[in-house]
Amino acid sequence: MTSFYCATWIRHWLWRGHLAIGLSGFEKEIVERADPIIVEGHEIFVATPEDLIVLKVLAGRQRDLQDVKGIVEIQGERLDWGYCLAAAKRLESAVDVDLVQQVERLRTS
After folding, report:
1. Mean pLDDT by 10 residues, the chain (109 residues)
2. What Cα–Cα distance (Å) separates residue 51 from each residue in 35, 67, 98, 103, 106?
3. How far is residue 30 from each of residues 5, 22, 62, 69, measured CA to CA in Å?
4. Which residues face 39 on adjacent strands?
5. pTM value?
6. Angle 51-105-21 (CA atoms, 0-180°, nearest 5)?
7. Taking the chain, what is the end-to-end CA distance rounded to the nearest angstrom?
8. Burial code of 5-19, b = ≥16 C-beta within 10 A, e = fewer?
9. Is there a contact between 107 and 82 (Cβ–Cβ < 8 Å)?
10. Cβ atoms within 10 Å, residue 76
11. What is the DSSP letter of 61?
């Protein structure tokens, strides 16, 4: 399986974001599930809050875990925790990290 990941920060006076292009299975899912938003008249697609949670738990840095807490606080009951747990389970065998336990802990905190 070939995969490619390229990330860069995009900064603009009205908008700042993170652009990631990936070709692995999970990254393709993220792109397919992405939500469209309009920025300065242009449609761009952003990862769903659930996919961001899984990606940030996977990264595991303190800053990422703080970001997850913010996502959970803002999204609240709208989050699909079943999807988060299923995605974490699919990924954890590939990365040898207990992602499900970490996502579950965030869900119940």
Report:
1. 39 52 71 85 88 92 92 94 94 86 90
2. 11, 13, 17, 12, 14
3. 13, 9, 23, 20
4. 42
5. 0.75
6. 20
7. 37
8. eeeeeeeeeeeeeee
9. no
10. 8
11. -
